[in-house]
Design a protein that fits this description.
Chain lengths: 323, 218
């Protein structure tokens, strides 16, 4: 649905130039929720703005829904943009218009005839759960409600793709959760493809089927979340940070990462029974992610239990000696 | 001079001032909006980015802003004569008033439009809005309260300018205050003029404030 290859964007000022996006390839399949994770300054915002040509890339190609955007003339680009919804960290609503007016604005822009707007606005507001606030002004809404208006507006032209620029970063955890649930719901009900950028792990955990970690303008790693968890990935460490000692006298400390069905297998109990070892859990999590169940533990095994570690490896879990 | 004579003079003066300021305001609003919008659009990173055009426009505006009104009034006499055929009277005064106020209001418009958050404009671009839609439905509409507040300031400045225009035969309250109040020592006229001006300015400000409050939903 979104194909990016060799994307590069450099910002030049008089004194120096900064490479914001450095040779990034990205492919987002239809119906996928793809998260780009990175700290501020990693270039993820520039990357997202290149997808709908808010920023012109210096090199590389971007195509959305099979349409190559980098080569389009202004007018064609405008039409292409109707098929790409976008939501923003600070909502970017028109303060002079009511909730209904903000959604109607998107319809005016896409050329929906006046007579059809009212019904479509009502339908969109119903979709995001704001049917009763149509006449309120943005300043009278909470952050979560404002973002719902942003989402309704972004969906006005029935886009196939939604770009999310830190859509939950200005919201509290509970509101974040409700917005993420809405996005996931839209993804499933409308088959909406979502490309989002965020610095929040929760977002990736809750809704992303695929993810990339971005640093200094490059993708450090990328792929399906389930696959990333199985490999030696930063994402696994970042999704499940463990704050526990890495060495225990007389014991080997291992980090065990499991995903899919393994996450719910009584693996450690099995280990203890089979090898008659005392497994100590030093820290860990098991959680439900958007695409899979996954967990990560830090455990301590007595020094002479090499067999037990081999057993763990054979089950398909990822086992590393903690350090 | 009797009070009824004073009131008669005052009535005429008020009418003249209202006419001068009214027409000049209308022309200034149009000219100032146009130039203010262009200043924002042609700026670096703007929707019609054209730095050279922006620089020239900025220079013209600055020249207009740096001339004291009383000097502008005299300096553009040939232009005034070319436009209205005379340099005396209220109609002639409207020309320098407008020329003086346009750069002033243009800067106010520019500042007001810059207050519209960049991400709101970016969001409109991302939605596929045309430049015309962005200017009309986003920039001008979102800045409307600030524009009205700025226009109020401009109208009041124009009342002040119009008094100066009065001194070169422009008529109005300023003319009245100078000719009767100052040159003929008619203190009653002076006081009446001052009171009339205070009330006039007060009314303009009140109307402006009410409009701004009504329109602002921030």
């Amino acid at each position: 649905m979104i194909e990016i290859s060799g994307l590069r964007k450099t910002y030049r000022s008089r004194k120096r130039s900064v490479v914001a996006v450095d040779d990034v390839d990205l492919s987002v399949g239809e119906g996928e929720v793809y998260g780009v994770l990175g700290r501020s300054g990693a270039g993820k915002s520039t990357l997202l703005r290149c997808v709908n040509m808010l920023e012109r890339p210096d090199a590389g190609t971007v195509s959305v829904g099979g349409v190559e955007l980098t080569g389009l003339r202004r007018k064609q680009l405008r039409v292409a943009r109707h098929g790409i919804g976008m939501i923003h960290q600070h909502f970017a609503l028109l303060s002079s218009r009511t909730v209904a007016g903000n959604v109607a604005f998107a319809l005016e822009v896409t050329g929906v005839p006046r007579g059809e707007r009212r019904a479509r606005v009502a339908e969109l507001l119903e979709l995001v759960g704001l049917g009763d606030r149509a006449d309120a002004y943005p300043s009278q809404l909470s952050g979560g409600q404002k973002q719902r208006v942003g989402i309704a507006r972004a969906l006005a032209a029935r886009p196939k793709v939604l770009l999310s620029d830190e859509a939950t970063s200005a919201l509290d955890p509970e509101t974040t959760e409700s917005i993420l649930r809405l996005l996931l719901d839209l993804n499933r009900r409308l088959g909406l493809t979502i490309l989002l950028i965020t610095h929040e792990m929760t977002v990736v955990k809750r809704i992303c089927t695929s993810a990339a970690v971005m640093r200094d303008g490059r993708f450090v790693e990328s792929g399906r979340v389930a696959d990333l968890l199985r490999g030696d990935s930063e994402l696994a460490r970042d999704l499940f940070p463990i704050d526990a000692p890495v060495s225990v006298p007389g014991a080997t400390v291992l980090d065990v990462t499991v995903s899919g069905e393994d996450a719910d297998r009584p693996l450690l109990a099995e280990l203890a029974r089979r090898f008659d070892v005392d497994v100590r859990i030093l820290g860990g999590h098991v959680e439900t992610l958007a695409a899979t169940r996954a967990g990560r533990w830090r455990i301590a095994l007595p020094d002479d239990s090499g067999e037990a570690a081999d057993f763990l490896r054979k089950t398909g879990a990822r086992v590393e000696v903690a350090s | 001079m009797t009070w009824s004579e004073v009131f008669e003079l005052l009535g005429t003066g008020l009418q003249e001032t209202a006419w001068m300021v009214g027409v000049a305001t209308l022309l200034t609003a149009i000219g100032g909006l146009l130039i203010g919008v262009l200043l924002v659009l042609t700026d670096k990173g703007g929707l019609l980015a054209a730095p050279p055009v922006n620089a020239v426009l900025g220079l013209i505006v600055n020249v207009g802003r740096s001339l004291p009104f009383i000097i502008l009034l005299v300096a553009i006499i040939p232009f005034t004569r070319a436009v209205v055929g005379t340099t005396i009277g209220t109609d002639a005064a409207i020309v320098p008033l407008t020329v003086g106020a346009i750069p002033f209001f243009a800067r106010i418009v520019e500042a007001a439009l810059r207050e519209v958050p960049a991400d709101v404009v970016a969001a409109s671009v991302a939605m596929g809005a045309t430049r015309r839609q962005i200017v009309g439905k986003v920039l001008l509409r979102e800045a409307l309260p600030a524009l009205i507040a700025g226009l109020t300031i401009t109208v009041i400045a124009l009342v002040g300018y119009s008094a100066m225009a009065g001194t070169v035969g422009g008529g109005g309250l300023g003319d009245l205050a100078i000719r009767y109040g100052y040159q003929r020592f008619e203190t009653e006229v002076m006081i009446a003029t001052v009171v009339a001006l205070v009330v006039f300015v007060q009314l303009v400000q009140m109307v402006g404030d009410v409009l701004v409050r009504r329109l602002s939903h921030r």
